[in-house]
Design goal:
By secondary structure, this protein is α+β, with helices and mostly antiparallel strands. It is 22% helix and 15% strand.
Length: 68
């Protein structure tokens, strides 16, 4: 499983890293630190990613089962 945070949609509210800090984090400007790149989800943290997706008001996080 991988996720991508859409740079055009993320407004830096920080809800994703508030509910799942073990997966998401913030950059110096308060935006998701992984904007615009595919991130491999470590085993066992899939639910944390789904929790972060669920609280994002902009729906800026996309999850992919198989992304090259």
């Amino acid at each position: 499983m991988k996720y991508v945070v859409d740079e055009a949609l993320c407004s830096g509210q920080g809800r994703c890293y508030a509910v799942a800090p073990e997966v998401f984090g913030e950059d110096d400007d308060g935006y998701n630190k992984d904007i615009g790149r595919a991130v491999e989800v470590p085993p066992g943290l899939e639910q944390a990613v789904e929790d972060g997706v669920g609280v994002c008001p902009e729906q800026a996080i996309r999850v992919f089962a198989n992304l090259p």
